[in-house]
Design goal:
Residues 1-16 form the signal peptide. This is Lipoprotein. It is built from one helix and ten strands; from the N terminus they run H-E-E-E-E-E-E-E-E-E-E. It is mainly β and 193 residues long. The strands form two sheets. Strands 1, 2, 4, 5, 6 and 9 form a six-stranded antiparallel beta sheet that branches. The protein has a four-stranded mixed beta sheet with strand order 3-10-7-8, with no helix packed on it. It is elongated and about 50 Å long.
């Protein structure tokens, strides 16, 4: 039980640090065009990639209606609450953007919780999570990736927190101000944009 609490504490601390560092208001010392952090003109630099971290133009993440929750039913038991194997919900999202040349790379993060249902049990589970970048106004898909994200429901208390990350959402820098980023559960067909 103590190890479960420790894992939860570490996950929440990591998410809190990521959220604090990825705030679009420039909280972590990113004064774009005014020296930024570390004395780098125009913003901070990601030490691992050498790319400029740009928060001022980093598109926000949205959840489409109906995509924040997911339920997996036993075969033949669809829409029967007693046949739910497991269910999950996305609680928080954040992102971090960096620019290299004429491309923006966006790291999309979604945190949530999963729990076994009445017909479920402890063990590995999969959740279909899609990240999509759509042009405002035209709804043209610039990026779309569906992942079968896996986590494990622990024995004893089959509920867990999860942290999904798509680190490589790449879009043209000139599109960054006119797009919307969506993340959510998607049981639809696989498509890649």
């Amino acid at each position: 039980m103590a190890s479960d609490n420790l894992v939860r504490l570490i996950m929440m601390a990591a998410l809190a640090a990521l959220v604090a560092g990825c705030n679009s208001s420039g909280v972590s010392g990113l004064n774009l065009g005014q020296g930024g952090s570390g004395g780098q003109p125009g913003g901070a630099v990601d030490q691992s990639t050498g790319s400029k971290v740009v928060q001022g133009t980093c598109p926000k993440i949205e959840l489409r209606e109906g995509t924040a929750y997911f339920r997996k039913y036993a075969r033949g038991g669809e829409d029967d609450p007693s046949q739910v194997l497991y269910q999950a919900a996305i609680a928080n999202t954040t992102r971090q953007c960096s620019v290299t040349g004429d491309q923006m790379t966006i790291q999309v993060v979604a945190a949530g919780r999963a729990a076994a249902g009445p017909a479920g049990k402890a063990g590995p589970i999969k959740m279909p999570i899609r990240v999509a970048v759509v042009e405002k106004g035209t709804n043209k898909v610039i990026y779309s990736e569906l992942a079968q994200f896996e986590t494990t429901l622990p024995s004893g208390a089959p509920t867990t927190q999860f942290l999904f990350t798509d680190p490589d959402v790449n879009i043209p820098i000139n599109a960054s101000r006119s797009v919307r980023i969506f993340v959510g559960f998607d049981e639809g067909p696989y498509e890649q944009g």
